[in-house]
Amino acid sequence: MRDREKVAAEDAEGSDVRARIIAAAAELIASGGPEAATTRAVASAAGVQAPTLYRLFGDKRGLLAAVFEHVMKSYVSEKSARKPHPDPLQDFRDGWDMHLAFGLSHPGLFAIMSSDPQLASQSPSLGDGQEVLRRRIRNLALAGRLRVSEERALGLVSAMGIGAVLTLLSQPEGKRDAGLAHAAREAAVAAITREAATPKNAEVRAVAAALRASMDRIRVLSKGESLLLSELLERIADAE
């Protein structure tokens, strides 16, 4: 009887209970990934009974969808409020950097996105975020700086942006490739615009990459020398 009374009281709180549960689940996901947001853990963290979760969200997937929407809505709101740069290409670069920073600070959200793309695709805020990106691409097109169709540009940037985040998240936090985010951004710029930046010392970097790829053919160096030279060539090839 007491449990029933407690559940009834929780339901009476309505949206406050829902918000508390979503906040608790979001915190668990941020610290331990989607797997950490078990029904028991979320209920305990939110101070509610497990039946309340099922009544409000249906199942764990429904709860994950609510958390995804909650976090995305906050991010897209911030993204939309940002004053655009007068140069549409710089504005695109700024938006890319913001996306990468958001992704790296929300690994749990991207874990949900990669494990259940259909769930993520149903988020209204994800669609709103795509519209923000679409406007940036439209501004590039209006300025005559786009070299592919707007739809192709949208698809390329979305795929490359999500891929860059997931790749960086797969690397140990203290050993992430610091230059990958910048390189991926400029690759996206090169893919959709006429104004890709020319890398510094591009010819030298190309030679270094070619030589490193041929290291298995070099027999005159010791194993230690080969490892050292390979590391140095990799650093030259990846130099900004």
From TrEMBL:
Pfam families in UniProt: TetR_N
The HTH tetR-type domain, residue ranges: 15-75
Keywords: DNA-binding
Domain of life: Bacteria
Membrane-spanning ranges: none
InterPro entries the record matches: Homeodomain-like_sf, HTH-type_TetR-like_transc_reg, HTH_TetR
Gene3D superfamilies: Tetracycline Repressor, domain 2
Residues of the signal peptide: none
DNA-binding region(s), residue ranges: 38-57
Keyword presence, Phosphoprotein: no
Molecular function (Gene Ontology), one example: DNA-binding transcription factor activity
Keyword Iron set for record: no
Name of this chain's protein: Helix-turn-helix transcriptional regulator
Organism for this UniProt entry: Corallococcus exercitus
Lineage: Bacteria, Pseudomonadati, Myxococcota, Myxococcia, Myxococcales
